[in-house]
From TrEMBL:
This is alpha-amylase. Belongs to the glycosyl hydrolase 13 family. Its EC number is 3.2.1.1. It comes from Penicillium digitatum (strain PHI26 / CECT 20796) (Green mold). It is an enzyme of class 3 (hydrolase). It catalyses: Endohydrolysis of (1->4)-alpha-D-glucosidic linkages in polysaccharides containing three or more (1->4)-alpha-linked D-glucose units. InterPro entries: A_amylase_C_dom (IPR015340), Carb-bd-like_fold (IPR013784), CBM20 (IPR002044), CBM20_glucoamylase (IPR034836), GH (IPR017853), GH13_cat_dom (IPR006047), Glyco_hydro_b (IPR013780), Ig-like_fold (IPR013783). Its cofactor is Ca(2+). Residues 401-509 form the CBM20 domain.
Amino acid sequence: MGFTAIWITPVTKQLPQNTGDGMSYHGYWQQDMYGYNVNPNHGTSDDLLALSEALHERGMYLMVDVVANHMGYAGAGNTVDYSVFTPFSSSSYFHPYCLISNYNNQSDVENCWLGDTTVSLPDLDTLQSSVQTLLNNWIGDLVSVYSIDGLRVDTVKHIQKSFWPGFNAAAGIYAVGEVFDGDPAYTCDYQKYIDGILNYPIYTSDYSQAKNVISFIFFSDGIPIVYSGQEQHYSGANDPENREAIWLSGYSTTAELYQYIAITNDIRKAAVAADPSYLTTKNVPFYQDNHTLAMKKGSDSSPVITILSNAGSSGPSYTLSLSGSGYSSGAKLIELYTCTFITVDSSGKIAVSMACGLPRVLIFASSMSNNGLCGVSIPSATATTTTQTIATTTTTTGARCIQATALPVLFKEVVTTSYGQEIYISGSIRPLGTWDTSKAIALSASSYTSFNPLWEATIILPVGTTFQYKFLKKTIRSSTVMWESDPNRSYTVPTGCSGTTATVTASWK
């Protein structure tokens, strides 16, 4: 999906018991924080070192979740055996036992315990200098030993604010804290004490609204974070349903939100590359109505414009007229989800086509000339810029129409192959690898016969997307690649109701 950092669960050794609240696979019930006693369910310290090295070799970053607020014990708070904790092996390191009863009382939040009577979470007394020293030494060692690049810090609001500057400094790297509260007035103040704070938008079962949430996270201020499972549109719930294993549901790299996040990641990278001021300027909303929010980020004269909608997938098609964007009359923009060009009119307004409640991202077209998005720039060694409309497209619809935001497109290619040859499809858009043969999509020969040499693949693509593509043969043993003849094929993903499918049939040329 194009990410440059991986955030993993806490690595400290956890309570070993299977409790009435489940196992401690999530990493928030730690018992041993020191030494090389990492959670054996996740591997060894050597495995963690290998992960860190492998990420850095790829130019990626390692972000680790850490807990400074509490330990974990299988039992009620009045039965805790403190000797099982390392290095906090005495009750003197902890606040006296009391479960949090009032989350509107900050003293209660900071001094009483999380957890329940099945698994208690003994609350460290971080006002003590000895506790602060142990925690600061621990985090410094953890970062140093495993070459960690960033931290996500759990339960930040449950520790007094004055603790965090010293902890952050001891870590010596970027730290983002969890302040689990929906009130910005409450959460924002913590940014004075730690590098950053996570935000907590509400997710939805409507795919269009989910895409708007994703686009907001990526194109507003800060570092976008995607939680494992969001790309599969997991609904989440209370523990443990909000931490389900992604491999149990048939992990799909063609899932609608997986593809959408990958495309969105590419768009943000292109925006950062095109404008040196993009990351340092604040996101500014400049238009809103009951269903729409438009915001801009980057240079004043050529910002990235993001348009969000709350209309949902059944939202109407209409043209939104935007003024105050900063673009001058005659400027040519490109909308990067639909790959359509828009020219700013003589009065400085931008006419943006909206449909199905989907977000839009606009950027100065000339700044996109060398990144391969939307086919604006296509390598010519194996592909040309000429287009050809091909084959027939068929759709099937149901009785009740909810507009789809993406459609499964079945590509059928009739081509005779020899043993060891495979057929792939590559094209000008991210889901087809942007002409990179190593990222091309393999077709299946499951229906291939000598009478009907059919190769096929179903790929989920955003509606309205226009792109160029070709089929290619790969000979596995020799690693040779043979492209179809020019010109490129061209296709536009049709609109349709949810449940609609599209089929493209072609023969090798």
